[in-house]
Every structure is written in structure tokens, then in C-alpha cells.
Amino acid sequence: MAIGLSVGLYFGFSTGARVWAVEAFGYGWIPLGLWIAVTLVTLRYNRHLVTSHWRYWIVAAAFVAISIGILSTIFPEDGVLGDASLGGTWGGYIGGTPIILAVAKMVVIALATPLVVKPKPVGTAYLRFIRAGLLGLRVAVLYLYIGIQESARFIDRRVRILRYGIDRKASRKDILKMLIMRSSHTPVRTLAYQGEANSLTELSIRPESGPDEHEATSGVHSGFDDEDEWQMPASGLIPTWDNKETPQHKHPKASNRVISSGSVKVNGKGGWQTPTVGSLTPPDTHQAPEAALHEMARLVESTLGDHGVRVEVTDVKAGPRIVRFGLVPGWVPKRGDSRRGSVGLGTVDNEVSELERSRVKVQSILTREKDMALALKTPYLRIEAPVPGEALVGLEVPSPSPSKVHLREVIETPSFSRLVSKGGLPIALGQDTGGAPVVLDLASLPHMLIAGATGSGKSVCINSIVASFLLTKTPEELRILMVDPKRVELTPFNGIPHLVGPVIVDAEEVNTALRGLIREMLSRYKLMEEIGARNIEGYNNRAKEKMPFLVLIVDELADLMMVGGFEVEQNLVRLAQLGRATGIHLVLATQRPSVNVVTGLLKANVPARAAFAVASQVDSRVILDAVGAEKLLGKGDMLLLHNESPKPSRVQGTLVYDQEIDHIVEFWLNQDGPPLPVIDVSDPEPEEDEDTVDAHIMENARELASRNPQLTTSYLERRLKIGRGKAEEVMELLGEEGFL
Fold first, then answer.
1. What SS3 state is found at 644?
2. CA 78, 84, 88, 91 torsion: positive or negative?
3. Average of pLDDT values for 371-388?
4. 236 pLDDT exceeds 60?
5. H/E element holding 403?
6. CA-CA distance, 134 to 640, in Å (whole number)?
7. Fold that domain 688-737 belongs to in CATH
8. Which among 188-197, 203-212, 364-373, 465-474 has the top mean pLDDT?
9. Distance CA 651, CA 617 (A)
10. Is residue 315 within 8 Å of residue 432, measured between CB atoms?
11. Alpha-carbon distance 135 to 132, whole Å?
């Protein structure tokens, strides 16, 4: 209040002060004085309003500045403010002349005020508008360029036509018609166009003539009717009137043929044909950003360095979804030499310093796994110490720009082609952490176990395996038996000639099929014994009739083990032990990798295992005998263990779409190849003398019934080794005798 009174008295008694005040701000003192008065009153009675609502004061100050700027653009004709403006001399700095500069200043104030009041949301909005404006500017420049180009092309064509008319001494009427006539939709045969000969317009080439002949023919060419108007060539075609040579006709190149359903029909006299990869999705061109990888590598080094673990990232391999950093342990001073600060520094003799240092222990890197996960902002870290075949500690981190691995991308690699040429059972499995293709030969594995939780990519992996077989093997080379208790995963393959029979969906029928496979295996051993061959490859080299591979694919092993129990496990183990030499291979899949499903005896006979994402370390140990599968990303990310790798390796599985499977299946359904040998996996028909139950069987059945009151038909089948029909008859006789 005292300051206000003193200022008021000073201006009241001093004429020079009043003149200076009027010339300084003019009428701008009205909004400025109002803002100053409100501020002083607020500071006097409630100063906390100024600090808590400072944004309102800044906005009011901006309005005051804009008001003074508007007043500074108005100049009175006479008076004290005639030389300045209504805003005064100082107001001219805010507005003033020229008017465009004044408007620009006030716009800057209006835009800067929200940025000061709320910088984060307003700055984000401004950045979004700037990007949109730059994009609009680019589009405008592009359309401007296109317009200039089209205009230049239009003018060039009209100039060419005008020169042609002048050279041919055509009349003004004809030249005007040619200039304003629209382009013809019929392509003209020129040197610049080589299309179909029968669709081109015939153009008559005038021979060179003398002056007399020109006068005789000029009337013909200049006096044509409206119906015979000369048609303009199509866009981009240059007429060649003076060229007497007939342009060479080139047929268009045939595009790559993509085999679709119904495109191939093979009769019974011909052989089977395999589909091409044209029906598969082409691979995506993808490359990980190097800047992001280098930044991640430096972050790993600095994070471990902050905890006293010195490492150096010397190798970076970027795969489809995983980036593997190769860590080399650094040197640290020995215990008691930490006062030197760093190795090799602060010592007179460098050799002594080298003798007094030691390598960072690998265990110290493993203990900092959670610290690295925190720094890299991801829980999906996996450390491989050491990397097989390299003196590195592998750190696997999710890629900042993941990509998909299509089946065609792996099939078109040279490694897969070499595997196909060897004649085995090639599988396009995926790509490793470095982006290299991972292909396997099922004939050399010889069996495979696939396990993973729901949604981890297990069924897609089975589809990729089946698709690899169907793309490379004919029914004469490979036969498949499929078991799908879920009824939705493998049933789309019903009807293809590779199948031994329809896809088995009833778990109770699996034991019958497994017994049939064992009979087929034993019969193959007898054939190999007669010809003197040790395996299927030697048999096919000697025998006239080739023996096809036989692959059993089971989508859900847990359901079979629950229904069939010990008999299913016993049959599978026997096939796994003896089936390799006869060309019988197993592909077993389950989503519940427990010890009751994946038993130790079965796991010992299935060396190749693929573990997708699981729920716990216990499940990972059941599959791989090691931890790690619980840290996978899912959606095709797997750990692969087979006889060629001592430790599990990280692989991103191939992706095959349902449409691709449908194309392959329809391709095989539309073929009618030569007849195939029948492989019967059903129970054999009972002989006539076996219809009756003999006394020995009934005696054994009575003994079993006396010891086991809850006797079942399946139990009699296993213990007495009889068929189902005879077991039911024995049960009826035991019921009549009162044993049940």
C-alpha cells in the first residue's frame, strides 16, 4: 500500500513523470494497471493465491501483453500519442509496425503461454501438429511435383504433334483437331511399345514423294471425315511415322506360377508330384536396428560395471525375436590390490600388474541376472554360460524389433536343400538366435518330443513338421499315422494320400493302432532279414519295391496316457527302441509335461526334444533335464535339444498359416497317383478255430476273477493276450458261472 501511495503521489505532482508514463504505454496502462492492482491486493491479503494459482497470473499477463500489442497497431492523427501509438513507445516493442510483424509477435506470445503453463501436454500436442504439418507439406510438394511433371509431359506431346503437323503441311483445322483430341484407349504399335500384335492399330507409313505427288495426296490426308479422325497415341507412346522398320514383337515374360488347388491333376500312369513353395507366404525382409543393439550392448557393460563386474560385449547376433550378446569376462585386481583403482594403472612395472590381476568369474555374471533384467526392462533374460564352441557368456534378450519366421524362408535355404537331397525326412524347424536356419532330419534323430503350455506354438510346430514332409515327400516315400484326441489340430489333413488311415480321434483306438504298427515293424524286420539289409536305406537300395518311411504323430500324449495307461507307454517305448532301423519314427507332443506323461523310460528313448514356454522350472526339467524353458517368450520360441547339441539351443519356430496348409492339402487331394501299398494297423481278423474259448483260457480267467472281483475286459486282453471279442465272451461265461 505504501509503494502504491508513493508511486501515485510521484505521478500526481510530477508533470514530466506523467508525460513519460503516457508516452511509454498510452492506453496500455488500463490493462497493465488493472493487472498490477490485482496482484498487489492479492499479495497484501492472500499471498498464497499467487503461488498456488501462478498459471492464472501468467495467462493474465499474456492477455495484457496482447492487449498492449493490439493498441500499439493503432496510431491517432494528433495528440501526445500521435508519434507513438495507443500502446505507447514500449507497446511498439510488443506490436508496432509493420502489421504482419506485430501479428507474428502476438501469435508467438499466444503459443508460448500454454507451453509455459503446461509444458508436457501442450508440447506433445505441438509436436503432433508439427509432424502433421510436415507430412502435409511433403504431400503438397509431391503433388506439386506430379502436377509439374504431367504438365510438362502434356506440353511436350502437344509440341511433338504440332511439329508433326507442320512437317506434314497439314491444314490448321487438322492440326487443331490433333491438339484438342483426347488420347485413344487403343495402344499404338511403336518402338516404345511391344505388346500383342493382334491388338495393335495398323498405321500406314507414307512413302516419300515428290512435290507433285504431295499435292495429289494432300487432299486425301487433309480432307478426312469426322469418322476417320486420327487417334492420339496412348499415354507414353511416341508415334514413329518415318520409321519403315517393323518393330520386333516380344511376348511378355511368364510370371512365376503358383500352384493352387486344382492346378495339377496327375493320372494313374504318372508319378506323384510334390507342390512348390509358391503357395507359401514369402519371407519378410527385416533387419534389426544397429543403433539400438549398440545402445543395449553399452547398457549391459555399464550395468555390470556398476556392480563391479567388468565385461566386454564382443559379439552381437540378432535373430528374429532374440538378440544374443557375447560377453567376455574382463580383468579385475586380485584381492588386496583394489586400492590401485584399475588394473595396470598406478604401477611402475606393467608386468607385475599383469601378474596381479585375475579374470571375472562367470558365476559373478550369473548372479547379476536380475540387475541386468532391471536395466534392460525385461523379465525374459536367459544366460548361457558358456556358449557351446565359443569362449563367451551368452546373454539372450528379446529383440527391440521382432519379426516372424515364415516356413518358406527356411525351406528356400541351401541347408534345407542339402538335407532334401540326402533322402531323409527334412524338417524346417526355424531360425536360431543369429538368424541362421535350423533344419533337422527326423530319420537321424530318430524320434522327437514336443512339449509346451497352451499358446506357446506347439501345434504350429507340428503343422510346420507335417508341411515340411508334404512339400518334400511323396506318398511312395512317406506314410503318416496321425492321432489327435482334440479333434481339431490334425483333422484338416484327412484325405491326403500320405495317411495310412483317417486321423485317429478316439483315444481308445490308439492301442489298436500301436499294436498294428508293432506288427508292421516286425514284418519289415523279416523282409530286411530275408534280403540281408541292416536298415531301411540298405533295403531300398537292394529291393525292387521300396519301403516308405512311417511316421506316427501324436498331438496330445497326456490324454493317451490317461486313457491307455501302461499299455500305451509300453507300445510307444517298444516302437521307439526298435523302429528306427525299419523307418518308423515318432513325433509326440503334449501340453502337460509331467512325470506321469513323459516317463523316464519314454524320455530315454526319445533323444530329440523341443521345449516351448512352460509354467515352471519343474516342467522344464521334465522335458530338457535343465531349467530355461520357463523364461521363453512364447509364440514359437523354443529350446531344442538333440543328439548333435550337448546343451539346449534357442530357436524361433517357423510360422505356417492355415491358408497355406489348406493349399497344400488341396494340392494332394487333387492328385490321382499310382496305387499305394496298404499298411493295415487294425486288429487282425480272428481265425475260425479261435472263435471258441478253450478250457485253458477259462481256467486262467477263473483264477484271475477269484483274485480280482472287479475284472474288466481290457485287463483280460492284456493278461490272457486275447482279442476283444474273445475277452467279452470270457466275461459273459464268468458272469454265468457266478465269478462276477
1. coil
2. positive
3. 88
4. no
5. none
6. 49
7. Arc Repressor Mutant, subunit A (1.10.10)
8. 465-474
9. 19
10. no
11. 5
